[in-house]
């Protein structure tokens, strides 16, 4: 069994209103000097195979079809 971690983030240039809200809240809480906050998503998956190439291919397909909106989001995959 292989564990995959998918990290999904907005592409550069795409407005991130949640990141801006978090940035403002951090400033209001006294955390000065924090800027350019971007929010993303993390998915941890167990893939029922020992074939790393197959796991990576399958997870990439999952990202392209469901986990990421590839028009506005990038993703990275790491396998353990």
Please give the structural blueprint.
Layout lengths: L1 E9 L6 H12 L11 E8 L4 H16 L5 E7 L1
Antiparallel strand pairs: 1-2, 1-3
Our measurement of the CA-to-CA distance between the termini, rounded to an integer number of angstroms, reads 9 Å
SSE pattern, N- to C-terminal: EHEHE
Strand content: 25-35%
Number of strands: 3
Q: Total helix count?
A: 2
Rounded Rg: 16 Å
Q: Indicate the overall shape.
A: elongated
What would CATH call the architecture? 2-Layer Sandwich
Largest sheet: 3 strands, antiparallel
Can you put this structure into words, describing what you see?
The chain has a three-stranded antiparallel β-sheet, covered by helices on one side. By secondary structure, the chain is α+β, with helices and mostly antiparallel strands. It has two helices and three strands, in the order βαβαβ. The protein has one domain (about 1-80): Phosphoribosylformylglycinamidine synthase subunit PurS (Mth169, Chain: A).
